[in-house]
Design goal:
By secondary structure, the chain is α/β, with parallel strands linked by helices. It has helices at about 1-25, 45-60, 75-80, 95-105, 140-150, 165-175, 190-200, 210-215, 265-280, 280-290, 300-320, and strands at about 35, 65-70, 90-95, 115-125, 130, 155-160, 180-185, 205, 220-225, 250-260, 295. Helix content is about 45%, strand content about 20%.
C-alpha cells in the first residue's frame, strides 16, 4: 500500500519541481538586480556598466545596482558572479580582458569563460589607444619610438593589471618595435590613468571608452588606435595597421552575462530588455559619445563572438610568445 501511495506522490513532486523555475521566471524580476562590474570605478567597463544599469532599471521596472568587484584583471569579479545563484538577480559586465585575454595568458583560471557563464547579450566595441603624457615630446608613434630608445630603461607604461588587454597590447607593441619599456600593472585602468596624467608613467594603452574624457581635456595625447579603421571621434589618429604594425585588429568589447544555469525565460527577459535599450536613440548617442560602437548580439551570437576572440588572443599570445611580467 505504501509503495502504491509513494510512487504517485513522487511523480507529482517531480512534475511540480519542473514548474518552479518557470513560475519564478514568470514573476521575474520582482526585486533589485545586482550588476557586477569586475573593475574599479572610473574605467570604460564602469562607465558602460552604469549607463546600462540605469537603462535596464527603466526597462525592467526594478533597480539595477552596480557592484564594483575589482581585482586580478577581472578575475575577482567574475568569480563572484560565477558563484552567485543563477536566478537572474546577479548579472555582470563581461569584457575582452577577463573573458578572452585571460585564457590566453593564464594556465589555470578559476573559471571557464564559456561553461561557467550564461550569455545575455553583446553591447558594443571600442578600440584601445596608445596614449602618452602631454609632457612626452612625441606627436606620433615614430617620434615616440625615438624618444623611448633615447632613454633606455627610463620609460614606463601602465596597464589595468597583469594579463589585461591593456597589458597585452603594450607587450605586442614592445615586441614589434623592439622597445624596452617598464610595465607597471595597476588595479584597474582608473589608477593607471591617474599616474599617466601625473607623469608617473609615460604611456598607456587604455580602451578609448575610458580614455576619451582625458583625451578631450588634453591630459592625454593619443598616437594610434587598434581596430580595422580610424575611429570617428579620433579621425586624425591612425590605426596601428596603417603604420605597419600587424596584430592590433582586436578591440575592447562589452556585454552582459550571468552565472551558468540561468532559466531560459529569465535570460530571454534580460536579453529582450537589453535589445530594447540598445535600440533607443538616446542610448546610441550616449555610447557613441563614449567611443563605443554598438554591436547588438543575441546570447548565442555573443557566445560565438567570445569563443572567436579567445581563439584570436590565444593564437596571438602563442605566436608572439607574449608572457606575463612579474
Amino acid at each position: 500500500m505504501l509503495k502504491k501511495l509513494l510512487v504517485p506522490a513522487l511523480l507529482v513532486l517531480g512534475f511540480v519541481s519542473t514548474l518552479v523555475p518557470s513560475a519564478q521566471a514568470q514573476g521575474y524580476p520582482n526585486k533589485s538586480i545586482r550588476l557586477i562590474v569586475p573593475f574599479p570605478p572610473g574605467g570604460g567597463n564602469d562607465v558602460i556598466g552604469r549607463i546600462i544599469a540605469q537603462k535596464l532599471t527603466e526597462r525592467l521596472g526594478q533597480q539595477v545596482v552596480v557592484d564594483n568587484r575589482a581585482g586580478a584583471n577581472g578575475i575577482v569579479g567574475l568569480q563572484a558572479l560565477m558563484q552567485a545563484p543563477p536566478d537572474g538577480y546577479t548579472i555582470g559586465v563581461a569584457a575582452a580582458g577577463p573573458m578572452a585575454v585571460n585564457p590566453s595568458l593564464y594556465d589555470k583560471l578559476p573559471y571557464d569563460p564559456i561553461k561557467d557563464f550564461t550569455a545575455v547579450g553583446m553591447i558594443g566595441t571600442a578600440p584601445n589607444v596608445l596614449c602618452v603624457n602631454p609632457g612626452v615630446p612625441a606627436n606620433d608613434v615614430k617620434s615616440f619610438i625615438e624618444y623611448v630608445k633615447s632613454r633606455p630603461g627610463k620609460i614606463a607604461y601602465g596597464s589595468a593589471g597583469a594579463g589585461s588587454l591593456t597589458h597585452l597590447v603594450g607587450e605586442l607593441f614592445k615586441q614589434q618595435t623592439g622597445l624596452f619599456m617598464i610595465h607597471i600593472p595597476y588595479r584597474g585602468v582608473a589608477p593607471a590613468n591617474v599616474d599617466l596624467i601625473s607623469g608617473q608613467t609615460q604611456a598607456l594603452f587604455p580602451s578609448l571608452a575610458g580614455a576619451l574624457p582625458h583625451i578631450r581635456s588634453g591630459r592625454m595625447r593619443p598616437l594610434a588606435v587598434t581596430g580595422p579603421r580610424r575611429h570617428e571621434l579620433l579621425k586624425d589618429v591612425p590605426t596601428f595597421d596603417e603604420l605597419g604594425y600587424k596584430g592590433f585588429d582586436g578591440q575592447q568589447w562589452y556585454g552582459i552575462v550571468g552565472p551558468a544555469g540561468m532559466p531560459p525565460a529569465v535570460v530571454k527577459t534580460l536579453s529582450d530588455a537589453l535589445s530594447q535599450v540598445l535600440a533607443q536613440q538616446d542610448f546610441k548617442d550616449k555610447l557613441s559619445s563614449e567611443a563605443v560602437a554598438l554591436l547588438p548580439l543575441s546570447p548565442d551570437a555573443f557566445t560565438a563572438y567570445v569563443k572567436a576572440d579567445i581563439e584570436r588572443w590565444s593564437k596571438l599570445a602563442k605566436e608572439r610568445k607574449i608572457e606575463l611580467e612579474s
